[in-house]
Amino acid sequence: MKKSIDMLEGNAIKTIIRFAFPIMFSSLLQYNYALVDNIVVGRYVSTDALAAVGSVGAINSFIIGAALGLTSGFTIPVAHGFGTGDKRKVSRYSGNSVSLAFTIGVFIVIIAHLLSNPLLRLIGTPEEIIGLSSAYLNIIYFGVPFSMLSNNFTAISRAVGESKKPLYYFTISVFINFLLDMLFVKTLKWGVEGAAAATLISQIAAAVLTGIYIIRFNKDVELKAADFHLNRKISLEQIRLGIPVSLQFTITSIGSMCLQSAANSFGASVIAGFTAAGRVENLTNLPMSALGVATQTFVGQNYGAGNYERIIKSVRKIFALDLMVSVAMSLILFSIGPHMVSLFMTEENPEIMEAARRYILAIAECYSLVAVLFVMRNTLQGLGFTYANMIAGAGEFFGRLAIAFVLTPLLGFAAVCYAGPAAWLLADIPLVIIYLSKERNFRALIKAKASE
User: Which residues contact 416 (CB under 8 A, 6 or more apart)?
Assistant: First the structure.
């Protein structure tokens, strides 16, 4: 098979970095859907609108994150098949994942609309913004099947060693989102509904463009009409791999909703500061996240090829690299984070800025913990051990739950600021233990193979 980037031979770190850069920029562009919505409504609508759009982040992660987590699991066998050189397996699993992702996405739209208002009330969304939050969510959720499709197509492309092409298509969709945001929100004054509609249309565009690329132009994935017919055995295998990843998003998002509930008790200005700082934090997450995703593809292909020693040596180097990147991101977050928060406002609000500053400082102090999380979680996911995601998610959940209901009443907003680091630490511990166990198994396989 022709590979865009050969992950089975050569310098592993250089290969992963080359592969990670387009992923990072693609993630940045995808993230811009929410970021642009936040900036536009914050500058051209009101602080309440910014708080309303920001306060739904945890609910979005709960529903949309769970949906996208499924697609991450669906394409793991594609990377394994590509590593072994089984072109038919690549096509069968790719086609099945597309049909499965869209089918599940349609069901999630229905469930999401039923749950959105009860969830908004459950997390204590202030009455002055709950109507705005609901209006935004009820439009955004129609994009779930299309988000699942575009993420699934992108995951297929990455599984076969191509990370650049999705970047081009997400660039187009982000420009569509920005232009429509300005038209709908600034010019036509449609408020949060306009921001949501702009995001929905751009998500549809991303799904169409990435789909055309995979189905028509990617030579490593030769899809036939029969490949799109849902196969019971393949579907069950993909769901088995996808559910733990999805549950990881679901569990951690429940913890985030609990934390959002704690933040909501401090009023709209603190919610806005917490929201804006969280958006800035997510930007500095992107390099570490991209290295993690690249690691998943690298590990998946080499696992399929039986290159266990290459996996062990490379993961240690990736781990060291990601820790260095986390230190750099901490410095960036600490130095320019507060200035980036001001982009969300037309005029500076001291209460918003103070809440954002306190949150950013807490995150910057502990950023190395999230580097461990990205490397270990994606390595185990690439190996197909997706149950580790669920265990890590449970750790994150209990960390945020303890902060929200035990420490916040005692320590106030300071506890909310340190909830993320506490969650990362509790997720890191089981992931490291599981990985070291798998590494011992690989060493035994290498030893057995050498003695044959």
Answer: 259, 262, 263, 274, 359, 403, 404, 408
